[in-house]
């Protein structure tokens, strides 16, 4: 009989090895080795300038509301338009997403006014913004965020995706370079802190007090704007402010800055950066992807967004964890409101109030065969707060692969269309929030409008 090996482990049979010391260099080498192994194992797909090609079937079904015959006729009549490349299927032409965007613009300027070739975007209004948050591991935040960014870009919007998670999942999925500390969002928070500390130091000097020294090198953040940190991705229409391992210390840095300036409202830092540096001419949508924790940086992202999206799995443990997260979120922002209310009463100012235009939950990696009971219970409990459409459990909808990044020839049209249907429905629900937000903003006087909403 073969017994388990652990029964044979005891001092008499075990030969101790020389003790080893594992330092931070070993940890770094471990991480670098894993990344180096993973890189050549990743799926290689057909790409043009980093983004895959789209067939005339996909374009006329999903991207431009025209008949395939009409599209081919327009291309023949307008040789200056992108003509695509012949690939595989008889008579089918394939186009890059940048070429698709050129075609959309052409049809918008020359096609029938009865069809919307370009998405609704009233001029002069700030971008819409949303943050995806949940402390539950594998809740689908990054997957949902990436799919929304890609869907919006395919629809014709210009997107800025801000990765607040030091693991950089969104950064990698979008094909961007992992950012070191000064390429992440942290300098925007640092800029806000330095501006506040400079104001406090001016007051200290007026009172004859010694100013608080500014951390060495941090003043360089004063010249940085979101557009300086945004880098293009392999998806035309999507830029990203990247994340990387250096961002893991962000909450500690912010906590230290808060100790130096206790009146500094760190939660307004990202909202301030996005409103002071007008992004209306560059972007239509800003998305924040947060880590699975509620820290200073996550709170700044949440306070900067108009909509709060909560991805979760339809499983009892995930529902329970999401409930605890939302309770914790309410408590954290509630504590800030209480503290600010005390300060406001002392100086006669307005108290802080946190609010979002919309809060929605979305079920991710949903398998109706296994999770229908939990999904129905969640829908009954949350009502309209939970979208009725689900992000499907599919090998084409994951944190490392997007359905929009998948060439349907890897499977077949029917399988591809079935996987895409649920994702498109989630984007449609999200787009309705965007359109509603802009329509409400159009009724507001220009001088009372702000960009991303925050406290106050």
Automatic annotation (TrEMBL):
Pfam families linked to this entry: AAA_31
Domain called AAA: residue spans: 133-316
SUPFAM superfamilies: P-loop containing nucleoside triphosphate hydrolases
Name of the protein: Chromosome partitioning protein
Organism: Cribrihabitans marinus
């Amino acid at each position: 009989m073969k017994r388990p090996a652990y029964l044979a482990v005891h001092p008499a049979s075990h030969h101790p090895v020389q003790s080893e010391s594992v330092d931070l260099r070993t940890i770094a080498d471990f991480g670098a080795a894993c990344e180096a192994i993973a890189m050549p194992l990743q799926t290689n797909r057909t790409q043009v300038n980093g983004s895959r090609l789209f067939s005339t079937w996909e374009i006329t079904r999903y991207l431009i509301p025209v008949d395939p015959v009409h599209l081919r006729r327009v291309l023949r009549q307008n040789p200056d338009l992108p003509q695509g490349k012949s690939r595989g299927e008889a008579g089918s032409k394939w186009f890059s997403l940048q070429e698709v965007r050129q075609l959309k613009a052409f049809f918008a300027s020359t096609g029938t006014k009865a069809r919307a070739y370009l998405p609704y975007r009233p001029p002069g209004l700030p971008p819409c913004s949303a943050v995806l948050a949940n402390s539950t591991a594998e809740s689908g935040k990054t997957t949902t965020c990436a799919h929304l960014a890609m869907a919006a870009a395919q629809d014709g919007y210009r997107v800025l995706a801000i990765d607040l998670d030091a693991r950089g999942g969104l950064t990698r999925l979008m094909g961007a370079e992992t950012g070191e500390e000064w390429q992440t969002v942290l300098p925007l928070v640092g800029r806000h802190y330095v501006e506040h500390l400079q104001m406090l130091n001016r007051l200290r000097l007026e009172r004859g007090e010694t100013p608080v020294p500014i951390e060495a090198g941090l003043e360089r953040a004063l010249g940085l704007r979101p557009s300086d940190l945004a880098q293009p991705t392999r998806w035309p229409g999507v830029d990203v402010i990247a994340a990387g391992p250096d961002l893991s210390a962000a909450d500690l840095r912010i906590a230290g800055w808060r100790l130096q300036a206790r009146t500094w409202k760190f939660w307004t830092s990202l909202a301030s950066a996005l409103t002071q540096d007008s992004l209306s001419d560059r972007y239509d949508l800003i998305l924040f992807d947060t880590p699975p924790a509620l820290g200073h940086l996550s709170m700044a992202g949440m306070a900067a967004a108009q909509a709060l999206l909560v991805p979760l799995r339809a499983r009892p443990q995930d529902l329970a964890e999401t409930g605890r997260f939302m309770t914790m979120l309410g408590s954290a922002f509630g504590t800030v409101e209480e503290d600010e209310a005390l300060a406001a009463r002392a100086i006669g100012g307005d108290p802080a109030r946190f609010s979002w235009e919309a809060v929605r939950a979305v079920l991710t990696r949903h398998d109706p065969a296994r999770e229908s009971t939990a999904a129905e219970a969640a829908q009954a409990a949350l009502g309209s707060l939970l979208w009725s459409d689900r992000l499907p459990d599919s090998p084409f909808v994951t944190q490392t692969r997007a359905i929009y990044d998948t060439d349907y020839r890897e499977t077949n049209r029917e399988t591809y269309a079935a996987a895409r249907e649920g994702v498109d429905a989630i984007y449609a629900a999200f787009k309705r929030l965007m359109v509603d937000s802009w329509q409400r903003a159009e009724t507001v006087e220009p001088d009372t409008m702000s960009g991303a909403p925050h406290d106050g």
